[in-house]
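To: structure subgroup
Subject: Chain for Friday's discussion

All,

I'm putting the inputs and outputs inline so they're searchable in the archive.
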Amino acid sequence: PLRTGARTRIVSTAWHRRSVCDGAFAARNAGGRIRGAGATGVKPRRTRREAKRLWIKACTKWRGLLWCGDWTITYESSDNTTDADGWHTLAAVKVKPQYREVMMTVDYEQVRHLTKAEIEEKARHEMIHVATGEVLDVAHEMLRALPRAKFDEFNRALSTAVETATTRLEIVLRRHKDA
């Protein structure tokens, strides 16, 4: 578990757009519970336990490849969260660089519906956020010196830039692996 009293940063949130293949979200948004293929029209590819095992396996792989072996990662399950635009959080990472600790919150219900390749892609993306967590922590500390109005403006720009850079790095790693 993470130490109390230390600052945490939300470094990343991977988002999934509602689609036909993610039919489980339709049942949730309609107020229903997921009851299998009959309720959602989409049968999960695997059990929650298998989804968690595959997620942790993929994160462990990329943890080593990205030289994050000295980081302690705690995995936490979460329920599906939806923002105002209908986007669903698949995984969120809170990094404490000073302690080399990470709290990764994952919605395994969503992971159940992903292919192994998609799980690998999402885990790789989150682990890149872990690898770059120290840089983002320094940027947040510098932003704190700004007035509140400027802080919000620059924080939004920083969040967009971090997500864009992380996605580009993830694509480079994927293409390099395939080459």
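Points worth raising on Friday:
The first helix runs from residue 24 to 29.
The chain is about 50% helix and 15% strand.

D.
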